[in-house]
Each structure stands twice: as C-alpha cells, then as structure tokens.
Amino acid sequence: MSTAYTLGRHRFTSRLIIGSGKYKSFHENLACLEASGAEMMTVALRRVELTTPNGEGLLDVISPKRVVILPNTAGCYTAQDAVLTAKLAREALETDLIKLEVIGDTKTLFPDVPATLEAAKILIQDGFTVLPYITDDPVACKRLEELGCAAVMPLAAPIGSGLGIRNPANLLIILEQAKVPVIVDAGVGTASDAAVAMELGATAVLMNTGIAGAKDPVKMAEAMRLAIAAGRLAYEAGRMPRRLYASASSPLDGIASF
Amino acid sequence: MNVSINGKNHEIPPNFTVKQLLQMLQLEQPRVAVAVNAEIVPRSTFDHHQLAAGDRIEILHPVGGG
Description:
The structure holds two protein chains of two kinds.
Chain A: E1 5-7, E2 10-12, E3 16-18, H1 26-36, E4 40-47, H2 58-61, E5 68-71, H3 79-93, E6 97-100, H4 113-125, E7 129-134, H5 138-147, E8 153-154, H6 168-177, E9 183-185, H7 191-200, E10 204-207, H8 209-212, H9 217-237
Parallel strand pairs in A: 3-4, 3-10, 4-5, 6-7, 7-8, 9-10
Antiparallel strand pairs in A: 1-2
Helix pairs in contact in A: 1-9, 3-4, 4-5, 5-6, 7-9
Chain B: E1 2-5, E2 8-11, H1 18-24, E3 33-36, E4 39-41, E5 56-64
Parallel strand pairs in B: 1-5
Antiparallel strand pairs in B: 1-2, 3-4, 3-5
C-alpha cells in the first residue's frame, strides 16, 4: 500500500513504532505488537536484578528476530549519561539504532535541547543511527538534522499525557523543512491523534501509553494500525481545501419549482 | 575486595575479571552490557578486563520502556 521509508540502513513499511513499557505482561505487549503491525519496538536499558537473574525477560517473549529493537536512553538527564547508555545498548543488542532522549525536567519530561544536540553529535561521530526525541521546535529539529540525525522525533504532547497534537502548526513547519523522516513521538492518546499526525505528513508515529494505557490495549493497537494507514492514505490523497461557506454537492441546475 | 555492583557493595575475589563476575552472578547472557567507573566494557574484553577494589560496576539489560 504505502511506500517504505528508511532510517539509516534500516527499511520499514509499517509507519507505527510501539513501546514496551506499562504493559500488564510481556504477552500482552506481544499481542499488541502483532495487532499493531509495527516493525520496530523501543526498549529501555536498566540494571539487572541480581537476586533473580534468570527470570523470563521481555526479549525472551518478543524475539528481536521478529521485530527491530530500538533501544532508548530514557531516564538520562545529561548528554554524558545518554552517550554511555547508547553505547551499552549497542553492546547489549548489537544495533546501531538509538532513540536518543535527554530529559530536561522531571515533571514534563520535555527534552534538554542543548544536551540532546551535544549527545547526538557524539553518537553520530561514533557511527550510531540517531533518532532524537525533541521538542516540537523547528530550529532544534533543523540543528539535529544538520548534525546528521537519521530522523527527528518531535513530541506531540508530553510523554504519557495522551493530549494529542498540541501544536500542529509547528509540526507543519518541521515537516515542510525536514529532509529526514519526521516521526511524531509522544503524546498520542487515541486513534484520531495518530491519524492527524499522519495527515499532516509525518513519516511515522511512535507511541507507548496510547496503546498500553487503553482499557483494551490489543484493540487499541489495531485501531492505531488502521488510523496510521488511513492518515497516510489521506495525506497521499491530498485533502480538499477548507472553505468557510457551503458548496452544494448536488447540481444547482434542474431544481424543480413547485 | 569490595566493589559496587548496581549501586550495592559486594565482596568479590581479588583479580576477578568481568567474565568471572558475570559467571558468579549467573549473568552470562547475550543481552547484558557492563560499564565500570562510567566507562563501557566491550563484550570482547569481558574475559581480560580485570576489576579493582572500589570499582563501580553497572550491569544493564533491556527492559520494557517507551
């Protein structure tokens, strides 16, 4: 149906990227992955539990053979921590992909823009395919693209907020100027939010709580798959112009006079 | 000798390597990554990277996240 897109040397057909946090179980996560049709899933890196080292892990249930694993640097508040976490993720998962997150504030989880730029520069020089989570700021996105990021991932709304696309005008500016894929990351609450992101022209949407936080996550995963596909089709079709007044759909000639 | 592993103090034999530590902890798994004193220890050097007293060791693995 819709065309493929690439991130570095990785090629994708599905324009939905899902998370792996907040699910009730790894098996629920797997069912959502299947229902969503996503080809890539993001994971975090955390300390191993030393007391129960051999319990069933996420990737024992969801094999990296069936989905591209996108490690993230969630929880990092400095460029230095994010760079080290990215390198550890590369060792643990044997991938050059990294979703770069450098958080600047605990309450909003908004990105620290200068620290994100600093970390992106180091990671790109080290050969990573860097996908940075960033504010919906056209200048920040431009700078990240100039550094060599494989995509930019502006937020729609705060992480886990489900508020939808708070600033479609900024997203449109980012989309207009970007020469790399634009992935809307964070804030999508329901299917229509995902469809709007795609209709605006986003390359893909990354979401976690939008699916995991639904009453029926598997059903929402399917809704998101359909919304992403519908939104993309509508974008490719090109919407009609908006008009302030009505424009009759039926012929004006030949109207009976009673 | 005393080292810190994931934020907690542990007593380990002197001249232990990262590989020996992972063996002791039953953590010889493919998806584990190790940093010592905020420096990455590449997997290829696990068997000859010798730990020292006071080392701050972080052993990480992938978990669910968004």
